[in-house]
Design a protein that fits this description.
Strand content: 5-15%
Number of strands: 4
Number of helices: 8
Order of helices and strands: HHHHEHEEHEHH
InterPro entries: Adenylat/UMP-CMP_kin (IPR000850), Adenylat_kinase_CS (IPR033690), Adenylate_kinase_lid-dom (IPR007862), P-loop_NTPase (IPR027417)
Radius of gyration: 18 Å
Family: Belongs to the adenylate kinase family.
Shape: globular
Strand order of the largest sheet: 1-4
Distance between the termini: 15 Å
Helix content: 40-55%
Catalytic activity: GTP + AMP = GDP + ADP
Protein name: Adenylate kinase 3
GO molecular function, one term: AMP kinase activity
Structural class: mainly alpha
């Protein structure tokens, strides 16, 4: 599970019926049902066949993996094995300035004054899906649903796992592995995580 969920930002701001429905699940700390998430992601992947791409947090269930396999040829699946408590700490340390969308993390990029936006001086808020009780529910559901997905891809010989708690220690190993899969990726373009 990533610290920033790009799919979540996309669907929460889309305003579409399926996006609004998906956001309601996220706000309750629940994972989005397979059919809704699969429709969202597969529609975004149409037309990307000629590109290399990376999905973060999808598929989360075997049904999603099977649907993805029907539409796309999957070459590699990367599993970031990060302890539950590390993920929970990072997610619950995230605060935002609603008007601007600025994101602060109390560990990595804290505001100058705790709870206050650096630029406007307005209060920061914690999104409902970053509150400790919601994060705990999300991580428990994620863990229960994704173990079978890891086994699914392990059985296909596509899974590669990387363990750790710090990006700068895990990233060099992931980068070296990706170089074997995408040798045309330049050092400049992929030297650091985004």
């Amino acid at each position: 599970m990533s610290e920033e969920g790009p799919v979540y930002y996309c669907i929460s701001s889309s305003g579409s019926e399926v996006g609004i429905l998906a956001k309601s699940y996220i706000d309750q700390g629940r994972l989005i049902p397979d059919d809704i998430m699969t429709r969202l992601v597969l529609s975004e992947l149409k037309g990307l066949e000629r590109y290399n791409w990376l999905l973060d947090g999808f598929p989360r269930t075997v049904a999603q993996a099977e649907a993805l396999d029907k539409q796309c040829q999957i070459d590699t699946v990367i599993d970031l094995d990060v302890p539950f408590e590390t993920i929970k700490y990072r997610l619950t340390a995230r605060w935002i300035h609603p008007a601007s969308g600025r994101v602060y993390n109390l560990e990595f990029s804290p505001p100058k004054v705790l709870g206050i936006d650096d630029i406007t001086g307005e209060p920061l808020v914690q999104r409902d899906d970053d509150k400790p009780e919601t994060v705990t529910k999300r991580l428990q559901a994620y863990d229960a649903q994704t173990k079978p997905v890891l086994e699914y891809y392990r059985g296909k010989g596509l899974l590669r796992s990387f363990s750790g708690t710090e990006t700068n220690k895990i990233w060099p190993h992931i980068y070296a592995f990706l170089q074997t899969k995408l040798p045309d990726v330049s050092q400049k373009d992929a030297a650091s995580p985004r």
